[in-house]
Write a structure and sequence with these properties.
3-stranded mixed sheet, about 40% helix
Length: about 130
């Protein structure tokens, strides 16, 4: 599954930052609700002639109406799923289960809007994932 499809199913909003060289092709591959920024090298003379990256808004992001809890949960690691189940009091009997079983339990026991909110929190605070 491509990352665009994966994120499109899971995220409320997405923005791609892409170099000018790949801008046109990348924009064609994205759903129209994705935002796009182009990145170029820039000289910032106000800051002692240092070079940096300048971002230009190419397309504003919009709300994704098709994201689902099912798709969002695919972005979590096993430990993340278990932590979510623990927090909901739904981990009894599955603490040593594989990711697939935890995934199914989360879909069965966690109220509809909560998995997407949990995934957002996890992804925005995750460290050491690269």
């Amino acid at each position: 599954m491509s990352k665009v499809r994966l994120y499109s199913g899971a995220m409320d909003r997405c923005t791609l930052v892409v170099g000018e060289r790949h801008l046109q092709k990348a924009t064609q591959l994205l759903p129209d609700w994705w935002g796009v920024h182009s990145a170029t090298r820039a000289n910032f003379t106000d800051f002692e002639s240092r070079e940096g990256i300048a971002l230009a808004l190419e397309r504003e992001d919009r709300e994704n109406s098709e994201s689902t809890a099912h798709a969002a949960l695919h972005l979590l690691w096993r430990a993340d799923l278990l932590a979510m189940l623990e927090g909901a009091g739904a981990a009894t009997g599955v603490r040593s289960a594989d990711k697939g079983r935890l995934f199914r339990r989360a879909l069965e026991r966690i109220p509809t809007g909560e998995p997407r909110a949990h995934v957002r929190r996890v992804l925005t605070t995750r460290e050491g994932w690269r």
